[in-house]
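Predict the 3D structure for this chain.
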Amino acid sequence: MIRGREQLLTKLYIITDVFVIQCTFILAWILRFYFLDGILTTEISFADYYIWNLVFTVAYVLIGFLVSLYTPKRRKSFISEVTKIIQVNLLSMFIMLSMLFLFKTVDVSRLFLSFYFALNTVFIVFYRFIVKNGLWKLRAHGYNKQFILILGAGAVGKNFYRTVDKHPEYGFEVLGYLDDNKKEFKDKDLLRKPILGKVNDLDRILAEKIVDEVVIALPLAAYEKYGGIINICEKTGIRVSIIPDFYDILPANPNFERFGEFPVINARDIPLDDYVNRFLKRLFDIIFSLVAIILTSPLLIFIAITVKLTSPGPIFFKQERVGLNRRTFYMYKFRSMKTMSTTISDTKWTTEDDSRKTKFGAFLRKTSLDELPQFFNVLKGDMSVVGPRPERPYFVDKFKEDIPKYMVKHQIRPGITGWAQVCGLRGDTSISDRIQHDIYYIENWKLSFDIMIILKTIINGFINKNAY
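Done. Predicted structure below.
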């Protein structure tokens, strides 16, 4: 019955999404060709525009399935849903633009496309928020409940119940526990939920009570019981979830994937392991870098000439850094120091009164303008616009022994700017604090997070007192 309701909600979401897209198409058309131009002035007919709208619509629904936009979201935050809506809109628009290019349809109004994309995103987010908020309120008042039976009244089971109790808007109600050590627990330990029997009583309890989901929170020592529990639940058509009792020793929120017939637990859930997220980030990096290079080209030329005129040596400085998957690459900068051997530059920190800096180089480093050539590293694929800052191999070898989890940062591409940097952790600051910020970024990546970091970088300015 629960799955039937979920399937019905999925169908309603698809139908409503399609309806909203058609409405935003008409609204974007009216805004562009009536309100802004007075009289309709377009060489492409309404019917032709509508065909491309259908291409977008089909792409939206198909991509929505691919990125799990239409899967049940009872346990997920609305922010994660907003992120998926933006992803689906971006990818659908990219597909439609690619098709327009392929069919050489060049007369489509760019302003119309901008209205179309913006209105689609805003309206779909808005109506889904209303639906989500309505469902939260209904569930918090006892409607559309799902009843859970917890197997295991130990620390894992009780912690799971605490989480359920904190979120009434999710609409879960714990009926109680099944545990073989009933005498060991007092009522206060069980947080007002009774032990209904032993694990072997599961068949009887499921027959007596309405249960939508059984959560196995037993210790691994009871592993031999798992198979029987799952068989009983599936025989009665009840969903089963397993919480491993070692979850608290994992370094981050784990996630499952399949390797052939084997389920594999990933100890750290990294959003950029998902190919859709990687594609979106890479597409954003390429577009942003190209725009940045074009806009700053006069400044790039000026700096290059000034570097050459103010000190002998090459204009650019390249240095080996450790990047994605611990692979090394050469990172580019405008040269800000006197020419020296790589042994010195690769193993020595820059200090505030470093005699190696040129006068113009000191200005470049203080304003971070020496970093501008790294946009070419982004285009090459060595770096990203946003990510953990890359370090020299010499210091990586030192830090990986002294700083816990230091090497985790190499699971994604390094960046020109990052979460640690916009939080003030640049130059002579704590490496441990930087790594904590880098790991937070890695585990919580969203395209909107990247945009926020870029905006904070611009707003905070490029001058930093710790940048030497």
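The longest strand covers residues 172-178.
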